[in-house]
Write a structure and sequence with these properties.
By secondary structure, the protein is an alpha+beta fold. The chain contains 6 helices and 9 strands; from the N terminus they run αββαββααββββαβα. Strands 1, 2, 3, 4, 5, 6, 7, 8 and 9 form a 9-stranded antiparallel beta sheet that branches. The radius of gyration is 18 Å and the shape is globular.
């Protein structure tokens, strides 16, 4: 890309950012739309169990009190995944979300792989972020994405740009951030079992994620 075109794109992006910021100020005195949907503990063959954590501390770090942090297990197929889901009512609060590239190294994990893969979510083929991480003898695979309505974004840059456009045409900039992880050697030594578990869980559970936006 030549410098003239690059500079033009930068100026356009800057103008959009300024416009979106001024638009947000106009709504700052009004209550943002909010949803009270509760993700069930039982989803098909998956049975959930809440993971203990300091809710107030995590909420202060991540800018929301609407958090799901659970393990889900499919006893029939021998699969288990960990789900972390956070609902944000607007752009400002969502800016406090932590990317997995930041969270996991901070907890002592090493990232072996960081890429974008195609996955079926709510009946549509979409792209999500995938990490392969390890710590001592533990190995896990992690899928994550941003979701606004049924639109799903793997990359932060794409998500932020989409939110700028949403803020121009709609008051609603609510979003969820989804992270699903599983051990890669959790079933009979198969190194791809974690990936299989996550993809099956996404097929069955992800349609429920759409319900976070049913009243917004």
């Amino acid at each position: 890309m030549d410098w003239t075109r690059k500079r033009t794109l930068i100026l356009i992006f800057f103008a959009l950012t300024v416009y979106a910021s001024s638009y947000g100020i106009r709504w700052s005195g009004q209550e943002a739309p909010r949803n009270v949907y509760t993700l069930p503990l039982s989803i098909g063959d998956w049975e959930g169990s809440d993971i203990s954590y300091d809710h107030d501390l995590l909420a202060s770090w991540l800018g929301t009190t609407d958090i799901v942090f659970r393990s889900y297990q499919d006893h029939r197929r021998g699969y288990m995944v960990t789900l972390y889901l956070a609902y944000y009512p607007d752009i400002g609060s969502a800016d406090m979300a932590h990317a997995p590239e930041v969270c996991y190294p901070g907890q002592g994990w090493s990232i072996r792989l960081n890429d974008i893969v195609e996955c079926t979510i709510s009946g549509q083929q979409v792209w999500v972020k995938r990490l392969a991480i390890e710590k001592a003898s533990q190995e896990e695979v992690v899928y994550s994405w941003w979701q606004t309505g049924r639109a799903i974004y793997a990359r932060n840059s794409t998500y932020h740009l989409s939110q700028i456009f949403r803020s121009m045409v709609s008051r609603d900039t609510s979003v969820i951030w989804v992270r699903i992880s599983a051990e890669t050697n959790s079933m009979q030594g198969k190194t791809n079992s974690g990936e299989e578990a996550i993809r099956i869980f996404c097929t069955e559970a992800a349609p429920l994620f759409d319900l976070y936006f049913k009243n917004t």
